Amino acid sequence: MEVNSVVQRLAAAVRARSLPWIVEVVPALGGLALHFDPDAPELPDATLQAVGALMEECLKAGLPPERHVGRALEVPVCYDAGLAPDLAEVAERTKLAAAEIARRHAAAEYRVLMVGFSPGLAYLGGLDERLSIPRRAAPRASVPAGSVAIANQQSVVYPYAIPGSWSVIGRTPLVVFDPTRAEPSLFAPGDRVRFRPISRAEFERTAAAEQR
Amino acid sequence: VSLRVLRPGLLTTVQDHGRRGLQHLGVVPGGAMDSIALSLANALVGNSQDQAVLEITVLGPELLFTEEALVALCGAEMEAHAEGETFPGDRPVLLPAGTRLSIRMATRGARAYLSVAGGIALEPVLGSCSTYLAGGFGGLKGRALRRDDVLPVARDAAALAARRYRLLSRRSARGRLGTVRWCAPPLTLPDREPIMIHAMEGHHFSSFDAASRRAFFDSVWQVAPDSNRMGYRLAGALLHRAEEMRDEILSGPTALGTVQVPANGSPVALMADRQTSGGYPRIAQIASADVPRLAQVAPGARLHFARCPLQTAIALRRDVRSRVAAALRGLAWEYGK
After folding, report:
1. What are the φ/ψ torsions at residue A68 (nearest 5 degrees)?
2. Which residues in chain B have Cβ-Cβ distances shorter than 8 Å to A38?
3. Spatial separation of the C-alpha atoms in residues A174 and A65, rounded to whole Å
4. What is the ipTM of this complex?
5. How many of the other CB atoms lie within 10 Å of CB of B128?
6. For chain A, which residues lie within 8 Å of any Cβ of chain B, measuring from their own Cβ?
7. What is the pTM of this model?
8. pLDDT tens-digit profile of A144-158?
9. Is B329 helix (H, G, I), strand (E, B) or coil?
């Protein structure tokens, strides 16, 4: 979490400088990628030294505070057992009641550490210690889109129906990734996320509205 | 004007230069594996660089052109026939209405690009017509072409074909096909094996044991059969990190041409449709100048890596860029531009 906080703040600082030779600034869990355009006329000759100097300059000027990086998002989640195939198993492994798991999951504030692996797939740091369990030994062949899952001190929200080995404890009715939307991804790196528990009825209503 | 797919070939997808600026949302640029052949294919029919074309992999499709069209096939050398004639590569060819173009096996290289004057007319998704197979979007419904698909081509493609063909110098007919007596230079086709690819030491290079570090640059690698648009699996030596360096790696950034080493020890070179991040150690980074050439290395072919520092990689890229620019200028002149 601490390493990633620096990654996000450094990413914001580099983006703010909008250098013409740096075409993409991509945070990952434990590192930051600066993709440069080798064809850009502005590309400094001593490229590595220039990147080093840029990092130093950003750090010296002071990185933006964490609360100024990313947006605050509230994401509705239904923790109904019918949408949470692994809730019983998680209850057994954590010795917590299903309602308590949902309460703890929704009580935390998360940070989007990285969006990757698959378009729109956000890795959220900040999971309640009591909910931190290893991945399931047997991955599910397909986890429905919107599934909210936990493992290894993190939570994810599956953008598509894809195979997964994280424990599914709920589902959001929101469309997490839609390439035809102006903002394709619900999550962006550095966002602060809270989950809001909703009823099954609200889940169905919101899901129907989102599909339109 | 439309293009009907009579036989799809092994893996035929719509591609352009890909989507930029979305990697932080997990969306990879993607686009044509051999971006140089894509540029040449477009220039050969007088298109701008951003037009969508077909990327053809190893075994080509059979296509029916409903109206007259000016097309070019560039990149890998493919056996191809149209109207009972051998279809010539690397040059503009005027196809009469109703032509069946049959593209068979690649005889050299792995990927060919078929351009049509006016371009393939699909709606861009996130700024590009490139097909992203893993994400299921872009191109034609986010998937490879299938039999009986119909691809829309620019509405004025037939008129453009006739007009542009008339501009060309040194025209020559081949039966009912109209073509020319010149061709584009092959800039990315592999020379003799093992094919030399330049690479820089990667972020985790020094964490590999001495034997693995030597083997990476000294040994010959074979492109495994399950290589694809996401990555090339390289068969040969098994690479391992030194025992004291086997700490867990947090998922880190990747780039086009990053070489990762999964736990089984066989390196994977990440290609156009790679994931934007990865949790395996990164032993090397292939010079971007050589990525289009790597895209033309077919499964089964052998290659080796030549070590180079970043500044050399940038110089190689400038060199390739100026050769591509010269070729594109030459093709523009053929159209009187």
Report:
1. -95, 0
2. 288, 313-314, 317-318
3. 29
4. 0.94
5. 25
6. 3, 11, 23-33, 35, 38-39, 43, 45-48, 114-121, 123, 160, 177, 179-180, 184-185, 188-189
7. 0.94
8. 999 999 998 999 999
9. helix
